[in-house]
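Morning!

This is the sequence you dropped in the shared folder:
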Amino acid sequence: MAERLIRLHLERRPEGVSLVTSDDLPGLLAQGCSIAETIGVAQDAARRLIESHIEHGDPLPEGLSADLPPKFELSIPVAA
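The structure's back. Tokens below.
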């Protein structure tokens, strides 16, 4: 399976958890205790959603990029 680039919306909740959704992949919802854990859960959930679309013959959402661009920016949290 090819890698796809999915834009995520990450929200830090007052109760200390992170929540991820995506306009590119409707139905994607992931939660974790840390940003890294939440992104890992989101990657797994996104993979399963995409596989489900393919297995059922459903078209993939238009927002999904078929190929990774040669260059893109990514912001990561760093504890200091």
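Headline: The beta strands are 9-12, 18-21, 29-32.

More detail when I'm at my desk.
O.
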